[in-house]
Amino acid sequence: MAAAPTTKKGRATRERILQAAAELVAEKGAAGMSLDDVRARTGASRSQLYHYFADRDDLVRAVVDVTTDAVLGVQGELLEHLDSWEGIDRWFDALVALQVERQARGGCLIGSLAGQLAERDPQARAAIAEGLGRWEAYLREGLARMAARGELRAGADPAALATATMASLQGGLLLTQVRRDPGQLRIALDAARAHLRLAAA
Q1: In this structure, which CATH number among 3.40.50, 2.60.40, 1.10.10, 3.30.420 belongs to the domain 8-54?
Q2: Is the Cβ–Cβ distance between 2 and 58 less than 8 Å?
Q3: Topology of 64-197 in CATH?
Q4: Domain locations in the chain?
């Protein structure tokens, strides 16, 4: 991995390259994105590309990180309040509303990268796993706070509950995408909520 830029101009150039690469991956898929595409979109020179990214794979792995940031950023402060049933319900409702707004297109941007990269690039797979882990951690930590307040039954495992919920979320997003029906995510999240409520004190 190339060294991070130390100047404001350098950071701006790297960010411009990275955003263009993320857009191209979303449009063409990771396999379809080329460094020439990135150069054409940004006006960056080949030397600039290799100054900020060691190679194409390094750039793609950076796209994983920026994609994770975007997915979490859309959810905003909702993720900070997953320590109550009301907060979890608001989060679920917002996720469904986002799919309605997007007309059930796009699925999970992180999950899409997993399908493209996980089996061919171990480092990209690790970056995707870390991104999903960052997402899941918000719910795990919220449930842990609920457990500490006695709102979950004794023996309830916040980590296992969070993983099961993430599995429902990812499956619901996939079905929503392929069936073009946000109701699929609603069904999956209703099932996740029922499972979570079984852990209530």
Answers
A1: 1.10.10
A2: yes
A3: Tetracycline Repressor; domain 2 (1.10.357)
A4: 8-54, 64-197
Confidence of residue 52 (pLDDT cuts 50, 70, 90): very high
Q: Contact, 124 vs 118, CB < 8 A?
A: yes
Q: pTM of the predicted model, to two decimals?
A: 0.88
Tens of pLDDT, residue by residue over 141-160, are: 999 999 999 999 999 999 99
Judge contact between 110 and 67, C-beta under 8 A: yes
Q: CB-based contacts of 155: which residues, under 8 Å, 6+ apart?
A: none
Q: Which pLDDT belongs to residue 172?
A: 98
Report the greatest alpha carbon distance in the chain: 60
